[in-house]
Amino acid sequence: MKPTRTLATALARGTVVLDGGLSNQLAAQGCDLSDALWSARLLVDSPEQIEAAHAAYVRAGARVLITSSYQATYEGLARRGVSRDTASALLVRSVELARRAGAAERDEVWVAASVGPYGAMLADGSEYRGRYGLSVRELERFHRPRIEALASAGPDALALETVPDTDEAEALLRAAAGCGVPVWLSYSIEGERTRAGQPLADAFALAAGEEQVIAVGINCCEPGDTDRAVELAASVTGKPVVVYPNSGEGWDAGARNWRGDATFDPSRVRSWQAAGARLVGGCCRVGPEQIAELSALTER
């Protein structure tokens, strides 16, 4: 059952807690994610594991669940022999699994359908570089069918997330226009620039006049880069800010494991809120334990 309030209304009234990294929770449940489709493979093989991961975050205090569709694309699924009709059904399934998990645990849980960047489909890390050599129009054509399929499932929002550059942000906003679902736009950043090197002020400005955009901000980045980015997003757009960084550990692509220390500090939510953040959570390697701490802090 969908919440009676819209997510935009909830954000206008206070802070709403997002979930954490879906993939790390699935790994903690014993799932093998060593696949180009990443967690999206489980939409085919083990949907019950995805639902269980969502439920773990709701129990931890999350009120917004991001679906497992980040890396689920028509092109990526086609490489596995999945037909277009079946791919559409899997995208819809991602929303249904999150909705069911939320309804089983709480009365009011919103579902955000994840729309990952083009680079996620390539599965080569290029979502952290951007500049794929495609035009805005070409990127729009890539994103539109998936957005339409996800929107048909009735999510509360579309999460246009981990966006590495302004060209893709423009394409995503164009593709989502008229789909009937509100969106948030969040960039993956380094310092005060997008991953592709554009100033964040310019990147955030793309969403400033877009009524469909209910929040703008950052995700999948270093925790230390968040404070200034939240300030910029709020000042440039005047909209609620969304922020969900990684744990702070670094991914070693050669060794295929995480290195370094986690620096995600749930108490940082205080400075985020003061700067204008209203949608807060975690991304890669941030699990239910950290979301529970963050949730407890927002309720005080």
TrEMBL record:
Domain Hcy-binding, chain residue ranges per copy = 4-298
For this entry, list what GO says about its biological process: methionine biosynthetic process; methylation; S-methylmethionine cycle
Record Pfam families: S-methyl_trans
Tell me which residues bind Zn(2+).
C220, C283, C284
Question: What EC number is given for this enzyme?
Answer: 2.1.1.10
Q: Which PROSITE patterns match?
A: HCY (PS50970), PROKAR_LIPOPROTEIN (PS51257)
Q: Which organism is it from?
A: Streptomyces scopuliridis RB72
Required co-factor(s) are: Zn(2+)
Q: Which UniProt keywords apply?
A: Metal-binding, Methyltransferase, Transferase, Zinc
Please name the GO terms that the record assigns under molecular function.
Answer: S-adenosylmethionine-homocysteine S-methyltransferase activity; zinc ion binding
Q: What is this protein called?
A: Homocysteine methyltransferase
Ranked from the top, the taxonomy reads:
Bacteria, Bacillati, Actinomycetota, Actinomycetes, Kitasatosporales
